[in-house]
């Protein structure tokens, strides 16, 4: 592993010290270009936990963190509704910005974030999503190289317990950013856009809210048509019935090896709550209890993924495997090993991309325009389902490989 330098490229301030940051911590700690220098969170316990774990100051106000001259980049991992405001504060203070998915809850907010970053001359990067997964990037390289011929179809399907885990009321309200369209579909869309070159022409979708008492989208079936004639199907179902990890070597989303007998456990676990308030309070306590130890590091792990994904070109098919990419072509089936980052779960390429942008002064691939284009697809999924028609897109941008 590379040794951390005394003046790392990314001197990071963390905004929001909950589950996302905790997942990111092992990568942040091991990445040679990153040093965590401060944090901000509204909750005093989160701030105390951070200072104890990282030996760095934690602010109650986001503005105070963004004014700290030691910080040159922030990681915005607050709940969705804060992404725009926190990105705007950071941009005004001249800090580069990594913002968690979803970029924001409306295209107007995405545009405001993009304009602010442009005005203040800072990089804006939207991540993490599964388009950063190393096997997905390897498949993009293969498509670009032309070795399997022109791209035709991308099919990606994910079945999980997403909607049946304990949730706060706003996580079950689409107008507040709840449900799968704002939380899981950005992963699928970002990955499919990267593989397909970015330029989605149109979206046709159906969505469903299938569980009484959980009145938000828990499943969707979406058809994307790319401008160059390729197409994609995206399926997500979060009701804790079938688990598509069964078709992915029983490796979970983060790359962990999973037990094959956990079906229905999330759903059964919800029975312990008398009502939505009790469930929401449990979720809030659980987020706090995550602390800032970082995700436990298993003895062995695999690449992260977001379900079963099969890419079809004229000369063959391919899909992510547990440790790389499986290619099926005229010579048969072969596995290409793809190296992983040093920490679990592997999110190193988000930081690689920002470090590269700062070093070269060139916008990252997952910049504001890219993030806004992904959110345009997600918004079109909701609109298409509501209006039962195909939606033609206007804000798509190509992959800058
Ligand atoms: N890319 C991924 O795989 C991934 C995984 C998990 C979460 N996320 C994203 O990260 C974001 C946060 O999710 P989470 O699960 O960590 O939530 P969380 O509730 O666990 O943590 C949010 C933290 O932000 C703090 N906070 C809330 N409002 C604040 C404010 N105004 N100012 C400062 N701090 C504030 C809270 O006290 C809490 O500590 C969401 O947008 C989510 O979609 C992404």
From TrEMBL:
SUPFAM superfamilies the UniProt entry points to: Glyceraldehyde-3-phosphate dehydrogenase-like, C-terminal domain, NAD(P)-binding Rossmann-fold domains
GO molecular function terms attached to this record: nucleotide binding; oxidoreductase activity
Bilayer-spanning residue ranges: none
Start and end residues of each GFO/IDH/MocA-like oxidoreductase domain: 136-243
Protein name: Gfo/Idh/MocA family oxidoreductase
Entry keywords, A to Z: Oxidoreductase
Classification via InterPro entries: Gfo/Idh/MocA-like_OxRdtase_N, Gfo/Idh/MocA_oxidrdct_glycsds, GFO_IDH_MocA-like_dom, NAD(P)-bd_dom_sf
Residue span(s) of domain Gfo/Idh/MocA-like oxidoreductase N-terminal: 10-128
Lineage, opening ranks: Bacteria, Pseudomonadati, Pseudomonadota, Betaproteobacteria, Burkholderiales
Organism of provenance: Ramlibacter aurantiacus
């Amino acid at each position: 592993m590379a040794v951390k330098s005394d003046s790392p490229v990314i001197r990071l301030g963390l905004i929001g010290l909950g589950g996302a940051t905790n997942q990111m911590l092992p990568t942040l700690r091991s990445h040679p270009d990153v040093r965590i220098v401060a944090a901000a969170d509204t909750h005093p316990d989160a701030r105390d936990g951070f200072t104890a774990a990282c030996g760095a100051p934690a602010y109650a106000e986001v503005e105070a963190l963004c004014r700290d001259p030691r910080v040159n980049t922030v990681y915005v991992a607050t709940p969705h509704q804060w992404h725009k405001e926190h990105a705007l504060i950071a941009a005004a203070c001249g800090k580069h910005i990594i913002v968690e998915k979803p970029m924001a809850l409306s295209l107007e907010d995405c545009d405001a974030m993009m304009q602010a970053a442009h005005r203040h001359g800072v990089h804006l990067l939207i991540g993490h999503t599964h388009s950063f997964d190393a096997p997905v990037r390897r498949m993009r390289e293969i498509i670009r190289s032309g070795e399997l011929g022109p791209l035709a179809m991308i099919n990606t399907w994910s079945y999980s317990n997403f909607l049946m885990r304990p949730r706060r009321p706003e996580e079950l309200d689409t107008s507040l950013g709840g449900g799968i369209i704002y939380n899981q579909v950005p992963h699928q869309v970002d990955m499919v856009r990267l593989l397909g070159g970015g330029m989605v022409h149109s979206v046709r979708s159906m969505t469903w809210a299938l569980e009484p008492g959980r009145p938000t989208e828990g499943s969707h079936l979406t058809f994307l048509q790319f401008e160059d004639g390729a197409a994609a199907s995206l399926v997500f179902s979060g009701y804790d019935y079938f688990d598509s990890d069964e078709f992915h070597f029983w490796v979970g989303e983060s790359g962990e090896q999973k037990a094959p007998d956990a079906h229905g456990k999330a759903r059964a676990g919800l029975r312990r709550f008398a009502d939505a308030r009790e469930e929401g309070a449990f979720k809030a306590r659980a987020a706090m209890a995550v602390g800032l130890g970082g995700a436990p590091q298993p003895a062995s792990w695999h690449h992260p993924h977001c379900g079963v994904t099969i890419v079809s070109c004229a000369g063959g098919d391919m899909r992510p495997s547990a440790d790389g990419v499986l290619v099926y072509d005229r010579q048969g089936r072969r596995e290409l090993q793809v190296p992983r980052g040093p920490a679990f779960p592997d999110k190193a390429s988000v930081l690689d991309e920002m470090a590269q942008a700062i070093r070269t002064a060139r916008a990252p691939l997952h910049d504001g325009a890219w993030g806004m284009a992904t959110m345009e697809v997600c918004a079109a999924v909701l609109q298409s389902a509501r209006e039962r028609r195909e939606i033609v897109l206007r804000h798509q941008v190509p992959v800058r490989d």
